[in-house]
Design brief:
Layout lengths: L10 H4 L17 H26 L18
Amino acid sequence: MIRDELEPGAPEEIANNPMHGPNQWVDGLPGFKETCLEYYEVLKSLGRKFLPAFALALDLAPDHFERYFRQPTTS
């Protein structure tokens, strides 16, 4: 599972928030971490592009869902 990459000591980690924590990476696989994080960011960006369409389909303002995705719990 991949989540947002948190810095050690991030408030979410310190609070033991179960939806936020450090990623655990395998040693000895050059480029694996970078590739996974790039893929994760692309998918997260794609998902955010759907938010205005979902809002408009529900007769809401296009930015209605933005506030719920400031600190996403995607993985």
